[in-house]
Specification:
The structure is a homodimer.
Chain A (H helix, E strand, L loop, with lengths): L5 E5 L3 H13 L4 E5 L3 H9 L5 E2 L3 H5 L4 E4 L6 H8 L8 E4 L5 H10 L4 E2 L2 E3 L20 E4 L7 H13 L3 E4 L2 H27 L6 H6 L5 H7 L4 H10 L1 H23 L3 H20 L15
Parallel strand pairs in A: 1-2, 1-4, 2-3, 4-5, 5-6, 8-9
Antiparallel strand pairs in A: 7-8
Helix pairs in contact in A: 4-5, 7-9, 7-11
Chain lengths: 302, 302
């Protein structure tokens, strides 16, 4: 039996449009309704025939929904939830895909008092944005973290988990605040670092931009992928998961200072020891199917 | 006409063995001789039939060479050059593949007074090591930077450039000190940052290693690839390109502090503006063929 017969997606960018495609592929009888704040995006979604109905207002999209998934930047969650409040059926479950969860849980609870809220976060994505960048297999073999509220509806959380399993995800459940600490180190800090170093390279006068681009295969290009991610989404993530990000950043800075000191003093043993430990982590990530084993990310070498 | 008829490769790891394979493929009449300090690596190279002759000493490998390429960690260049000094033909050109160039140029000149030295650096590689990790197309479409000495032999430098073009590389020429500054930002700093953040994640007690690995698709896994690179090679790079690395690190730390401050004070405009600029760099790297255009590095989704 399907976890939901009528699903509404608000926000039809990379993630929202990928959910639509994945639902079509794995649960073709589900009635899919959607909305996006951008008229241009709605037009593209209609042209691509991603959903059964694309409505011009958020409220119209949710009137008979069983599950509503908000796929908008985390800073916009509260406003979008307020937009659907009047039309949301009492028994509908409201979920989301945001990358920070405590702030989203709070925003949804405030905007939708009494509604059944089950925040969630599929840990999947690419550096591209928009409805045309989505694809049905984006969630295959990736984790989706469901973060039920402490006083939330357990059956609703289980149904949301089942929905994500149908899309091909592995589902994990944890509290919103623990989620935010885990993602601060596995996702938010890496993005911040990548954004920083790409900016640093761009500001160098003596090393030209064309040299940075030409010789990026030496390592730099690996950082540029995630530094090409959606700016609005990431601005919101850093502002809404501030405490955890700042703490991880502090730890990172201390560790960087230690290696900096080792370089300055020519302490090769400290460097060697550190560099040896980090190899094992990569191996585990590949072993557990979270990345390609192929060298160089499987980039084509002819 | 071939730039060299007899080529010797000292050090048969990822880069050395890839050169051997590429020479076999593109210049099959070249006589290839090689040596590695490790008996095990020599045995593997013989079994894989990578070269016409694998000798048990470095000296024996160079006796009739026209081009000798040292493919060892940059900290070992001086010692290996000293080993071949007595057997090196006077007209032979000695080159290398090291990632820092001023220190290598100095080490080679000191160990081989009077020899024709043309340092070079193919900006190519993977996170894997050893003779079995090499492949012939590693240098295709990648840059090779030739860094002739100020008082060096221009004809020799041109021949080395032609050799790399035959292996499929694009060739650029610059002074060793400029090379070291360019690579400090495009390669050395990215590796240092990646090594650091992977270590930081590994040291967290509250977020378990298994959580870091599970949810690495959120961005972290992109860093683990280069943090899995060869520890000896990278220790030597940081110790031999200390000044440029420390300077780039200083700039990076200042930029990171600026973003940190924006997060702490909730300055979304500064974050958004910064994140918008970095997208353009990624586009240029893809446009110039230095990385795959496919989303997510073209990782398989299925």
């Amino acid at each position: 039996m399907l976890p939901f017969a009528r699903v509404t997606i608000i926000g039809l960018g990379l993630i929202g449009s990928s959910i639509a495609r994945a639902v079509r592929e794995t649960m073709p009888t589900v009635r899919l309704t959607g909305h996006d704040a951008s008229a241009e995006v709605r037009e593209i979604a209609r042209r691509l025939d991603l959903l059964d109905d694309v409505t011009d207002t958020a409220g119209a999209a949710v009137t008979d929904a069983e599950l509503v998934i908000l796929c908008v930047p985390v800073g916009a969650m509260g406003a979008v939830a307020a937009e659907i409040a009047a039309d949301l059926p009492a028994e509908a479950i409201v979920s989301d895909v945001g990358s920070s969860k405590e702030s989203v849980a709070k925003a949804l609870r405030e905007a939708l008092p009494g509604a059944i809220v089950v925040p969630a976060h599929p840990v999947a994505g690419t550096e591209q944005s928009g409805p045309e960048a989505g694809f049905a297999s984006l969630f295959h073999g990736r984790w989706c973290i469901v973060t039920p509220l402490a006083d939330g509806d357990a059956v609703a959380a289980a149904r949301v988990g089942e929905f994500w399993r149908r899309l091909g995800s592995n589902v994990e459940t944890m509290a919103p605040d623990h989620h935010d600490r885990v993602l601060a180190i596995t996702s938010h800090l890496p993005h911040l670092i990548a954004y920083t170093i790409v900016g640093t390279a761009n500001d160098l006068a003596e090393v030209t931009e064309s040299e940075v681009i030409k010789f990026s295969a030496g390592g730099f290009r690996d950082f540029t992928r995630i530094a090409a991610s959606d700016p609005t989404m990431w601005r919101d993530v850093f502002l809404t998961n501030k405490e955890a990000v700042l703490e991880m950043l502090q730890r990172f800075s201390e560790d960087l200072s230690q290696l900096q000191r080792a370089i300055r003093w020519g302490d090769g043993d400290t460097l060697f020891e550190h560099f040896t430990q980090t190899r094992a982590i990569r191996r585990s990530i590949v072993d557990q199917g979270q990345d390609d084993a192929a060298a160089d990310f499987g980039r084509k070498h002819d």
